[in-house]
Sequence to fold (265 residues):
Amino acid sequence: MAFDIAFWLLAIVSVVAALAVVTLRNIFRAALSLVLCFITVAGLYVTLSADFLAAVQILVYVGAISILLILGIMLTRDVQLGSPTNKLRFPAFLAAIVFFGTVAWAVLNTTWGISPQGPLEPTTATLAGKLFGENGYILTVEIAAVLLLAAILGAIVLVREK
Amino acid sequence: MSVGLEHYLVLSAVLFAIGLYGALAKRNTIAILLCIEIMLNAVNIAMVAFSRYVAPQLLTGHVFVIFIMAVAAAEAAVGVAIIMAIYRSKGTVDPTEIDSMKR
Fold:
């Protein structure tokens, strides 16, 4: 019962925060409500008993990515200009509705193979084994590290003063 | 009806649709980046929900979410850098005015 209340509370807050991101005209406030959306998503991970991912969500999204985006907003100085919508507003709305309708229809008309097992708690040790252990994803971890390095170097080159 | 897999998937679809609308309709490149982050988070919710309800002992969905987060961080860093470079050379972040490749 407490689980249901937590889910509905987090779901409503995250959807409202996401709507605020796309409707608020002040881009800075939109970024702040995006932070709220990230925090509620971390809460949803907790309800799915993904403890490590909830911590990573707070650290990476709330701590790093939102700061980066807010810095971008401040450096481009278009806060007073706001974030208006373009001429494609109605087609974009239609596309979003069609997408949601299709996915919701597919989700509700599929019989999912729900496992009767309970969740694994805590997840951190098993996750480390999957990432770094035998037959794990170690090659992908290395590629992700190279990708991050390349992205950081690319960002530095792009914003460097000539 | 207690909360199950379908609830999380529909919530994920709602968030993805909101992000899709914003990414298509916004006239500020940073706002488009914010909406892309919403869409990535929606996909992550679906991944973790599948992992929790379909194969709760395997955690493969969690591994995918970690890689999506790494790619999202790289994407945000490069995206903000590109927007700042464009703002410096053109003085605008309006994607309807950044159209030099169309001419």
